Amino acid sequence: MSDIEIRDDREAGRLEAGAEGEVVGRIEYFVLETPGRALVPVHTIVEPAHEGRGIAGSLARELYATAEREGVAVAPLCPYVTKWAERHPDEAPAPAPGMRQAAKEWLAAHPGRF
User: Does the CA dihedral 32-35-36-40 come out positive or negative?
Assistant: First the structure.
């Protein structure tokens, strides 16, 4: 996995895993502002030719590390990130009560975003 580089394209709302100049996986997310600031992952996608290499897990880990560096929560709506967080509670603190519901409401109010 050392040949995978992860970069945050905040403007596009994507955390991307790249190899040899090609994006091979990504987490699509948005930034929730209220009731508190949070990164909200919606989809995790790994290109079929790159599955089984730990890319999705590396992306989830980096998303939580980014949130920790920024002092914000992660409120996952993505099923993969939700399961990853359940398996890694030491790296993935639970969001404050109501944060996921607020994220769901934001997503419903922006139907064309994802």
Answer: negative
